[in-house]
Structures are given as C-alpha cells and as structure tokens.
Amino acid sequence: MLRKLLIGTMLGSALTAGYAASTYAAGGSVEVLHWWTSGGEAAALDVLKKKLESQGVTWKDMPVAGGGGEAAMTALRARVTAGDPPTAVQALGFDITDWAKQGVVGDLGEVADKEGWDKVVPTALQNFAKHDGKWIAAPVNVHSTNWVWISKKALDAAGGKTPENWDELIAVLDKMKANGITPLAHGGQAWQDATIFDAVVLSLGTDFYKSSMIDNDPAALGGEKMVEAFDRMAKLKSYVDKDFSGRDWNLASAMVIEGKAGMQMMGDWAKGEFLKAGQKPGSDFVCIRFPGTQGSVTFNSDMFMMFKVGDDKKAAQLTMASDIESPDFQSSFNVVKGSVPARTDVPDTAFDDCGKKGIKDLAEANSSGKLFGSMAHGYAVPAAVKNAMYDVITRHFNGELDSKAAAAALVEAVAAAKG
Ligand code: GAL
Prior knowledge:
Layout: H1 2-16, E1 29-34, H2 39-53, E2 58-63, H3 70-81, E3 88-91, H4 93-101, H5 109-115, H6 117-120, H7 123-129, E4 130-131, E5 134-135, E6 137-139, E7 143-144, E8 147-151, H8 152-157, H9 166-178, E9 182-184, H10 190-203, H11 206-214, H12 218-221, H13 224-237, H14 249-257, E10 261-265, H15 270-276, E11 285-289, E12 297-300, E13 303-306, H16 311-325, H17 327-337, H18 353-367, E14 371-373, H19 383-397, H20 403-418
Parallel strand pairs: 1-2, 1-3, 9-10, 12-14
Antiparallel strand pairs: 3-13, 4-5, 6-13, 7-12, 8-10, 8-11
Bound molecules: beta-D-galactopyranose (GAL).
C-alpha cells in the first residue's frame, strides 16, 4: 500500500512536471562505483541515492576516492576482469568509449528512445554517451574546467576588481601575496595540474587549444605558444604554498573558504564545496572564467555508464537511467553539484548566479563553436594520450623540466602514446 502510494505520488509529480519518469520498476538494487567522496560531491550524490530509495531501489555504494577518477577506473578494471562489473559506473568521455569497445556495456535504448534523449541531450555529450548509435551511458551533468573561485574578502583586499586577462590576474595574485595570504590554493596531483593547464592553454586562444589538445598537432604541441603556456604554469606555481604537493582538491577549496588562500583554479565541482560550507556566490566567493577564456568552455560531463547485467538487475538499472535524465533531477542534482544540466530544456530558475552563468556560457560556447572537451578530464583525448600529457605537465610543474624542454617532451610523449 505504502509502495503504491509512493509510486503514485512520484508519478503524479513527474507528470505535473510534464514528464512520465521512472516507470520501470520499484525494487531491485543498483551497485554504483564513483569517486564522489568530498563533502559537496557526496551531498549531490545523495540526491540520486534518495530518489532511487524513494522508489524502493536499494543503493549499494562503491566509492573509490580520488578526484578525476583515475583510482576509480583502476578499481573498475579489476571488477570487469573478475567478470563482476557494477551496475553503473561514473565515467568520463574517452574512458566510456574504451569500455564500449570491449563489449561489456549495457544498452539504454529502451529508456532513451521512450524519453526522447536524442532531442534534449547536447550532441557533444551524445558523442560519448552513445556508441555505434546505442545509448550506453546516462549523462548526469556538464562541468567545465576554465573557472576560477575567488574569496570575496581576499579580492576586496586586493582592490576588488575581478581580473579579465593574464596581466590583471598576475596583478591580483601579487596583491594577495603582499596581503600575506597564499594567493593560489592548489593540490599537487597530476590531474589538478592538468586542470589548470586546460585553462592556461585555452587562455592562449581557442584555435591553439583545439590544435594542441584536441587535434594533437605536433607544431602546436611543441611550438612557441606551448612554451608560453608552460611559462604561465611556472608563474602560477610561484603563487602556491610550500605544502601543495599531494593535497586533495577539496582541501585546496577549503583554504579559499577559510580565507587562508585567495583563489583556486578548478572545475565547477569546487562550487559544491563552497555551498556545502554555507558560502554564497557574490557575497562570500566570486566565480569567473579563467582570465582570457570568457566565451569559451572546456567541458567534462559525468556520465553513469551502464554495464551488462542479468535480467534481475535490468529494471533497477533502467530506473536509475530514467531518474538521472529526468528534468527535475537534472535541476536538483546540479544545483548541489556545481555543474549544469546535461539537457538543453532545463530551466535555470533554481540555480545561483554561478550556475546561471555556467548554463549561459555553455549555450553560447556551443553555438559559437567554442565548446571543447577538457583534456584533463577525458574529453579531448583517450586515456593513454591524456596520461602522457599529465606526466609532462606535472614534471614541468614540479620543476623537473623547463618550459622549452616541456614543450618538446609533450610532442614526444603524445607521439609515443599514439603509437
Ligand atoms: C571530475 C568529475 C567531477 C568532480 C571532479 C573531482 O573528473 O567530473 O564530477 O568529481 O572530478 O573529483
């Protein structure tokens, strides 16, 4: 009776929202592998967990900590090799394609067709959520990496004006240093170095980002502009504190939240941490595009890739996929996560100013041909090439290579990874 009532209420509210979602099953269970273990990430994941639980679907959690998801992908490999994949796995871009090629992923066609995903999910995401024309993953969000998160108090103390180009950025960082705080909160992990690198390369031009990060043109990878990109990375390194090495990204966010640091250059999952700490955009923190990149977006989209499961698990898997893609979930989840919806028809009403800006920037970048996959987060190149780039970027960031040597090493590393 209670179950019937619950389903009735849910269907009722889904229909009011103009959407007949989650009609697949009540009951069953989903095992979900993910790396959403920080405060903000866990709060967002809870929105999904609760939604499924309200439908009687049991959530078996398989968290594998580690921003960017490298450790999660290693754990996944072990499970697939053992012939026991989870129901759903948080995954990014080319990793999804790689798994699809191995023939282990499921088929979401039934729910995607019924709910018209083709019409509402942006093509840039469909390129990864579908393989050989089949839906294999449910996109949860769109994040992007060319953001800077600034403490309002630290910015005011540094003159109050948000930087719009590289020189203005350096001027603000210098003032923050003079004011006695760590100007740049950063965690020295390869994926975090690479996240800043995405933005720095983009700040030197959209054509340059495309030719180097997407097309991997050796002339762009090893040219003068790349040397300049590495010079900019070295300059940014001079603003991090001495304990940066190995620090998790959310602890770097905490430094800005607590006023110990001035800013963090990070994807918009950082906003989830600020919100979780009770901070408000505009009054406690400020979000800007990395100076010089306004108008362009380097995106990554978290998707739940679905694995082949037995008939006993299929209904719960389809329920999860349907829930994820429903417009009301896309709004309530992304408001907490810091990301923006993975469909084009979700109103921005519930989003704060940074979220509204994220939605607008994404639409604009998409229509002007300035939307690019993030290299750091698996949407520009396959994992082997990405890891080769990570290695060079991190060696340079840690002072093992100068900028010229790094540009040359990038050409070689990418060529070797491509085989
Ligand atoms: C990204 C992911 C985000 C966020 C971040 C840090 O790769 O897309 O959702 O979780 O890692 O963990």
